[in-house]
Amino acid sequence: MLPLPKVSLPFTIIDSHSRRGVCGGSPVGDVRNKGGRHRKITVNNLLSRDVGVLKGIGKETAHSLAEMNIYSIKDLLEYFPYRYEDYRLRDLADVPHEERVTVEGKVHSDPSVMYYGRKKSRLTFKLLVDRYLVTAVFFNQPFLKKKIKLNDTITVTGKWDRHRQTITVQHYHLGPYSYRSEFEPVYSLKGNITSNMLKKFIATALNEYGDYIRENLPTAFLENYKLPGRREAIRAIHFPKNAQELKQARRRFVYEEFLYFQLKIQALRKFEREHSKGQEQHYDVKKLREFIQHLPFPLTNAQKRVINEICADLKSPYRMNRLLQGDVGSGKTVVAAVCLYATITAGNQGALMVPTEILAEQHTSSLRELFEPFDVTVELLSSSVKGKKRKQVLEQLENGDIDILVGTHALIQEDVNFKQLGTVITDEQHRFGVEQRRVLREKGENPDVLFMTATPIPRTLAITAFGEMDVSVIDEMPKGRKAIETYWAKHDMFERVLAFMEKELRRNKQAYVICPLIEESEKLDVQNAIDIHAQLTHYFHNRYNIGLMHGRLSSEEKDQVMNAFSRNEIHVLVSTTVVEVGVNVPNATIMVIYDADRFGLAQLHQLRGRVGRGNEQSYCILIADPKTEVGKERMKIMTETNNGFVLSEKDLELRGPGDLFGKKQSGLPDFKVADVVHDYRALETARKDAAELIQSDAFWTTEEYEPLCTYLQESGVLSGEKLD
Ligand code: ADP
Ligand code: MG
Fold first, then answer.
1. Membrane spanning segments where (predicted)?
2. Which of 294, 297, 427 to mutate to test the pocket of ligand 1 (most atoms within 8 A of CB)?
3. Which domains does the chain have, with CATH numbers?
4. Is 299 close to ligand 1, i.e. is its CB under 6 Å away?
5. Residue-wise pLDDT tens digits, 433-476
């Protein structure tokens, strides 16, 4: 179990719930952590007894158990299997090739043994299973020849080879099916602990202490959702009698885990709202309307809606902590501009923080353009702003001569001081570390903070990882956009791709060619930017100019290349993913992505978003020879949808949350039983329930909710004692 990553949550959360799973609820788990400070005399303390009190657990065994994070009886009872061996009887007709199966059959031929190598043997006989005659194979157990007789009934478990109609037996039982359980739990083990030992300890613990397991979910929920009680569920998760029992126990713990997780997030959100005094920014509505009327285009309804949501936050006494999601090209920049202007009309300064220098420069110039008629000073602060210029910018910032500061990480350095910072906006927020976001938030007097992201966050993740934030969504594209056509080509079709590019180039359009790495790497068989650049220069010699862009160029060099590309002096830009976010060159209509299968879907979608920014039909060509089915599926999905939300849901399904944001950034605890993708319905239910509980007075006063309240109290969320 990983501790809850300190991601996106403004509190440091240390609790036994996320670390050791679903133990929450009763104070037991925390007693040891707090050195007995809160020790209460309740029956629960029996469960907090050291595992050493159980028969058969000596010093050495206790040591091994400790390695598995099992210290108390409670820890032991809540050490859940990570999977189960399925010993259910099945009809062979339904069993796929190479799957494990358990069948009962009649011995239909005398066993014969064949010896080979040294001490190796193979025993086979025909087995009649219902109406199928199959071959049973046992390796290295020649003695069974004497035990297995013609016409005996035998139960075997093993791998089913559908083509050869053979079962390679791993377990057997001489006689009819009588396995103790249809499901055998499988635990992860450490030290000298064996599976049988652990099962015995758990069985003993259940016997001797099972009666003290206390319910921690309100009865109404158990009844509503038809969930088994905690004691019953703990027994069933270790020793399920059948599939139904296991399923119900699992359902219960999925819900329990989600409810506890959501309670904490909702409590955090409530606490944040009530305790984070922000500034009331009284912006000038008339001026704001004027600014919006001056924009080169009418705002979409979605843009208007989110601007209203953000402005309401600015005016309120709470500090804004809002996530703005909008697909690539949905027009987030102008929303940011309107909000920054609102801040300025309230007499404050604004900051816009972006992940790359290219983006910082681009935003600076587009904001300057927008603000030109409104007497707003926009300045850039990036690592390329040095020496005298930097000093000057910093002075003007402190004087209040600069209204809006745009920049990269340079914005949050210690010597950067604003006169009166009102609003901070970060673009592509998932690229910033939490620490950087926190430092930025702490500049000035509790500035309102807006995090913008084009990575569509699947609902399931949004309500978990970003559950403590308010969320606004731009779910509408500006009118007149043509959908980008996406094609998937194999590497050997590159010639045709080049011909297609040339056709567009002849129409005076431009192209991006993206490669995963800068230089050749022997480990990864990927085309590199430098190589491709050389190839294309050779192919298009004299006809078109090919530029090269990658992270190892200095920022001046990057500027030069980018500016030349914007001016259409470079026609084809070969680049690594540094152009992934935000870059805006509307004349580019082709995006070719090399080794596209090496990128996540969300990232491919970002890259694709670099084209289709004007009114012309644009194209995205993915070059990839994926080897796996999942890889092929991913390429296919890209060609089928332009909807970033659909893609991110799909990516989550195919690759899991870790891959979407990077494990650390997903902000998700490692759930013991629950799975955010497959159990998303339970997650939504738990979120709704948690939100209602936190808001209701009864929650804090009714005895029934006591385990939940205690859990929240001890996690420190309520008192803010874990505020960092
Ligand atoms: P993103 O959300 O990806 O940051 P941008 O803010 O870069 O998108 O906007 C993409 C393009 O759409 C820009 O050229 C911008 O000027 C244009 N745009 C934004 N809003 C509108 C609108 N309401 N109508 C027409 N064009 C718009
Ligand atoms: Mg943008």
1. none
2. 297
3. 51-82+184-240 (no CATH), 88-178 (2.40.50.140), 285-474 (3.40.50.300), 485-641 (3.40.50.300)
4. yes
5. 556 656 666 676 688 989 898 776 666 666 665 666 778 889 88
